[in-house]
Each structure stands twice: as C-alpha cells, then as structure tokens.
Amino acid sequence: MKEIDWANLSFGYMKTDYNVRINFRNGAWGELEVSSEEYLNLHMAATCLHYGQEAFEGLKAFRGKDGKVRIFRLEENAARLQSTCQGILMAELPIERFKEAILKVVKLNERFIPPYETGASLYIRPLLIGTSAQVGVHPANEYMFVVFVTPVGPYFKGGFSTNPYVIIREFDRSAPLGTGIYKVGGNYAASLRANKKAHELGYSCEFYLDAKEKKYIDECGAANFFGIKDNTYITPKSTSILPSITNKSLMQLAEDMGLKVERRPVPEEELATFEEAGACGTAAVISPIERIDDLENGKSYVISKDGKPGPICTKLYNKLRGIQYGDEPDTYGWVTIVE
Ligand SMILES: Cc1ncc(COP(=O)(O)O)c(C=O)c1O
Asked: Are 304 and 291 in contact (CB under 8 A)?
C-alpha cells in the first residue's frame, strides 16, 4: 500500500480494505457480510433510486494517545438511523446490529485509522437503502445496510478559525412537516443549489431560515447552529432541523461548564445579540461563525468582532475533542472503545 499522507487528508473518499453489509429479506435482517467490493449490485427499479428510500449516518473513530480506538456516540447514531427509517418507512435496523456492523468495519480497517498526532480521524458512513424493485410509489420490502469507512483530515487545516455564512432565502432545505429531521439523501439534494450559491458569493456555507415564515433560524448548511450570550447556550428548536448528536453533546458540556441551555425558536434579529456563535456537527465539531450576512435585507450580523473564535466556543471544542480522543474522561459513556 502507498503510504498515507495523514497530515494532508481532506474530507474525501479513500478506498479502504473492507465494507460490511446486512440485507433485510423476507421480513428479517440477515447475517453480517464482509466485502472488499466498492460497488453494489442493484436492481434498476430499486426504491432507493426512484423514490428516495435512502438513509445515512455519519460518525467517527479516533485513535487516542494511548493507542486505543474510540467511536463517538455509536448508539445515538443507531437511534437516529431508526428514527429516519420510521420517517421514510424503511425496515429499522436493531441498535445491536448497527453496533456489530460499525465495530466490525472499524476493526477490519484498523490500518486506516489516523495516528493521534495528526488530528485526523476515521469517518464512518452507514447507509440504508430500499433495494426491491417497485414501480408504484410504495415502500420496498427488501433493504440493504452498508457501512464503509474512510480516513479524513482535521476540519480546520490552518487551525480552529471563524467563517462567514450567508442567509439564502431563495431555496428551502426542508419543509416544516417534511424530512428535515431525518437524515435522508433528498434533503442534501435540496441543499445543493443554496450551497453552490453561497460558495459563489464567497461564503463558507449557506444559512437557512425556517421555510414557512423565514423568520427563525434553522440550520447552517449541514450543521446545527448555536449562539452564546449572557452565559447561555442557545440553539434553535424547529420541526425541520436534523437533531445533531454534536449539538446534543455540546448542550450537556455547556451545562457542565455552568452555562444555561435554551432550545427554542431563535428569530433572525437575535443574531445581532450573540457574543459567539458556531455551526456544529460531526465533521467540524464546532466551526465558529465570523458573521452572517442577509443580503436581501442588507444586514450583516458580525458575531466575532476580532475574527477569532470566542472563549466559550474554544472551550467547548477542546472539551469535546478531548473526550473523543480519550484525553478527557468520558463521564457520560459517550465513547465505545474498539477492543
Ligand atoms: C443537516 C445536518 N444538520 C446537522 C448535522 C450535524 O449532526 P451530527 O452532529 O450528528 O453530525 C448534520 C451532519 O450530520 C447534517 O447533515
């Protein structure tokens, strides 16, 4: 194998040795299969291809200073996948089977887990798709669960830094009673135009308001939003936001640090009052926000006056990364050690 340049990994796909699969047929999940094949053999009328019966997850494994490999909040990702399955009527994979598959695929690809010093990690991508042939719009009766892994670099190449965001009013990511709360591919297809526009305008990412009233904050691209003011961690409550596992973890850590935590509708104007703000998710942990521009209203909410991450964002970031890499105690049992 060609040596991997751990220090220069991007957030991209790299072939690893194995993936794992479990098929659902005749009303039951089968045995776990190990494969080295990167392609899937699919029926051209599979429901995932036509009617979007597709769910995915994203989580990470980290190699610690002690050489141990830790997977962050495995059960939470398993539960969110089940919730997505309920949302688009797919067969639910039991939590134990999800765990079995993730542990197996991580262990089989152990040589791809980046060394501690690099700040890189192993990204784990579970995928669940409807595979049986169907022409009418109905749920499939056969499903495939696949998990592959790929090493990914640290999100902040030049160090932990702030980014500018732009409110895009022209496109919605998800409807108030739609699939935004589920991790389905269709939401990401719906976000591509807004994301492209934000990049063309020179922003790091698009920022969504609620689709119905365009009054409240929803999400920052493929990440949740939080703002900090008056010793309070504030994150939007809405029916179209994906429940981020990173956000859930940060709410707990914020509380442990003595902050108040509020989850409630956050009107756009409140952006002017935050002392710090961040986008949070598995990829970045926290991506501190420099400013959010609302071009149509001619407003610019400058959150970081000096362009640097604020002290609370930095503390939360270091704490969460510390737990993930095993440098900080895992008080809540968030980490599964790969034996
Ligand atoms: C739309 C969206 N929101 C939020 C998140 C962050 O979720 P998590 O912290 O579970 O990675 C993600 C990424 O998974 C996402 O795709």
From this structure: yes
Cβ neighbours of 273 (radius 10 Å): 12
Query: Distance of CA 231 to CAs 160, 234, 268, 272, 339, Å?
Result: 22, 10, 20, 16, 40
Q: Assess whether the C-beta atom of 228 lies below 6 angstroms from ligand 1.
A: no
> Across the chain, which distance is largest between two alpha carbons, in Å?
60
Q: What are phi and psi of 297, to 5 degrees?
A: -95, 0
> What are the structure tokens assigned to 133, written together?
């042939």
Task: For ligand 1, pick from 174, 187, 224 the residue to mutate: most ligand atoms within 8 Å of CB.
Answer: 224
CA dihedral 152, 154, 157, 162 (to 10 degrees): 130
- Cβ–ligand 1 contact at 224 (below 6 Å): yes
Report the sign of the C-alpha dihedral through residues 225, 307, 259, 257, in that order: positive
Is 259 within 8 Å of 312 (Cβ atoms)?
A: yes
Phi, psi (deg, nearest 5) at residue 155: -65, -40
pTM: 0.97
Structure tokens at 52: 């979007």
Say if residues 6 and 120 touch (Cβ distance below 8 Å).
yes
Q: Is the dihedral of CA 14, 159, 183, 326 positive or negative?
A: positive
Mean pLDDT of 24-44: 98
Mean pLDDT of 169-187: 97
pLDDT at 166: 98
Q: Return phi, psi of residue 189, to 5°.
A: -60, -40
Contact 242, 181 (CB under 8 A): yes
pLDDT at 123 over 90: yes
Report CA-CA distances (Å) from 208 to 49, 83, 173, 320: 27, 23, 7, 25
Residues 168, 220, 86, 100, CA torsion sign? positive
Query: Does the CB atom of residue 168 touch ligand 1 within 6 A?
Result: no
The Cα 62–Cα 122 span in angstroms is 6
Where does the pLDDT of residue 7 fall: very low under 50, low under 70, confident under 90, or very high at 90 and above? confident
Cα three-residue angle 197-157-73, rounded to 5 degrees: 85
